[in-house]
C-alpha cells in the first residue's frame, strides 16, 4: 500500500480491517504483523523559510533531499540524524517522517536535544482514518494532548505522519574535536561531566574504549579557538587533550559495531551509572555517548543484557538480534495502551502491547 496524498491515505485506513505496518524508507523495517503501508508517495518540501529557520515537508520526503535543501542555505537539522543502515544490515533511504517517528538524535543531543525538540507541527492520519493537524501553520488540537511531542517517537503506533514542520539551525563556522586518550570508563565519564558542566558549550561527549574520549566544540571560529584552549586547560587533570579529525559521523552511526557479529543493545541511563552497568553486562565492546547517558553494547547472540545489568534508572533496547518483545512495566503499559485506544481504537497500527520497544532497567 502506497498512498500518494492524505486523502488516499485516510481512505485506505478507513477501509482496512487488518493490521498495517507503517514504513518510511525501510531503513529500520516495519513493526508488527500485517500489510506494509509505505509513506514514500507523500513527498516534497512544501515550505522553506531560511530567514525564519523553518521547514515544512511531507513525511515521505527523503532525508537526503531535506539535508540538501538546507545545505544550500548554510543550514542543517541540528539533532544529527544517525544512519544505522550498516549497523542493522539494511538498505533503503531515511525519510523525514521516519526520523520524527523514531525521535532520532545523534551525539549533539547532549547539547540541543532530539527531533522532538525541533518539531513545530505535525499532520497525521489516525486509526479511524481522520486527518489531524497540530502546531505549525495550522492548529487543531484533540483530546487535550500535545500531539506534536506525542508523535515524536511513536514509531507509527498512533497514526501515519503525513507532514512535519521543523525548526532548523545555521551550520557552524568552525568545529573542533579534542581527544583524551587512555581513560577508563569511570575516568571518561568524569572528564565528560566536567566538560559538559563547563561554560564552554560542548556539543558532543563520547568515549570509545579503544580510541579515547572525544569532546566537540562548534560555533564562530574565534569563539571555538578560545573555548578549545580553555577546555583543554580544564581537562588537564585527566591528561593532555589533543585536537583530532572529526570522528562524529562514526560515533553517530555506531560504525565500530557494523559488520561485527553479535547483538547490539542501546541503553539510556544516568551517566553516573554507566561504569557500573558496563562492568556488569560483560559486553564484547561498548561505546558511550551523551556524556555516558547513552551506551551502545555489542553482546554475544542471545545474551540477556537486562538480567546482567541489574537495577538501573533507565531502559535498554535490543536493536539488532532476536526480536525484542519485552513488555513495558505495568504502569507504563497502561498509559501506552490508553494512548493507543484514543488514537487507534481498532488496533490497526499496534494490535498488541507486546510491541513495546523499551523496558525499564529496574
Would you kindly provide a written description of the structure presented here, covering whatever features stand out?
With about 350 residues, this protein is α+β, with helices and mostly antiparallel strands. The protein is about 25% helix and about 25% strand. It is built from twelve helices and 18 strands. A hairpin with a 4-residue loop joins strand 6 (about 120-125) and strand 7 (about 130-135). The two termini are about 40 Å apart. Mean pLDDT is about 90; it is low at about 135-145 and about 350-360. Keywords: FAD, Flavoprotein. This is FAD-binding protein. Pfam families: FAD_binding_4.
Largest sheet: 5 strands, antiparallel
Number of domains: 3
Helix segment count? 12
Strand content: 25-35%
Q: N-to-C terminal Cα separation, in Å?
A: 40 Å
Keywords: FAD, Flavoprotein
Pfam family, one: FAD_binding_4
Domain FAD-binding PCMH-type: 1-171
InterPro entries: FAD-bd_PCMH, FAD-bd_PCMH-like_sf, FAD-bd_PCMH_sub2, FAD-linked_Oxase-like_C, Oxid_FAD_bind_N
